[in-house]
Amino acid sequence: MDRDFQFHFIEPDQSIADFVENLGTFHNRSDEAKEVVIIPDGRVDLFFIQSSSEPFQVALIGLETYPEQRQILPQTQAFVVSFKPIAVEYILNTTIADILNTTKELPKDFWNFKADDLQNFELCCTKAIQKIKELIPQKTDEKKRKLFKLIYASKGEMSVKELSEKVNWNSRQINRYFTKQLGLSLKAYSTILRFRASLEHIAQGRLFPELNYTDQNHFIKEVKKFSGVAPKELSKNKDDRFILLSVLKGQ
Questions:
Q1: CA 215 to CA 212: how far, in whole Å?
Q2: Crossing angle, helix 142-153 and helix 186-203, to 10 degrees?
Q3: Candidates 3.30.310, 1.10.150, 1.10.3470, 2.60.40; CATH matching 5-135
Q4: Residue 57's closest CA among 36, 82, 76, 70?
Q5: d(CA 53, CA 229)
Q6: pTM of the model as a whole
Q7: Where are the beta strands (DSSP E) in 62-178?
Q8: Which of 87, 135, 78 is CA-nearest to residue 111?
Q9: Could you state, in order of their start, the residue ranges of all structural domains in the chain?
Q10: Domain 142-236 of CATH type 1.10.10.60
Q11: 19: enclosing H helix or E strand
Q12: Residues 170-194: pLDDT tens digits?
């Protein structure tokens, strides 16, 4: 356990739960950079962040499709809103196709957050929830809302064909929407969600496939593709490198 690195994540208010998966904070108290591995989790992250060596920044991080090693600078504090992809259109009013596996810097006054706010997690949560409530449109496309609920509920295990039939939306149109809004196909997104669901098992030391993988080899291959390591090494999570896994273990 890395005692200099602290994090805390909470589930959102029910009023915004269709659009937000969780709200979180992390703090690298050390005078040294923290090495982490970012792994695909199917979420779109809005970061408010500052460190001793960098000014206050606001950044939107697109979906990831492969693992990436990053450094969290010394004395860094951050607040993060992790969105479900439907929020890209309805809350953020944008597309993130152009920031697949990368980041876009946003104006420093975005949502009227300030560097001092990061010292108070409850204040950050209150401000973010209030702002998101203001941004939720009166009407959303029922097909899209239903589609994302099914994708999440099935943990990525439902086929594109089955999803298409259940929401009565042509699979070609669904893929066009996904590609335009998020930068990847529905099938690719579902595969990431299935991997993330597997992380809950790996965090508990269950290293065999419990979802619809073809076999153990297929499972190992996919875990390696998205995390860079085999399930056994991932479950050890040395030095809390895989933050997402650390969060799941703490639940």
A1: 8
A2: 40
A3: 2.60.40
A4: 76
A5: 31
A6: 0.94
A7: 68-72, 76-83, 103-106
A8: 135
A9: 5-135, 142-236
A10: yes
A11: none
A12: 999 999 999 999 999 999 999 999 9
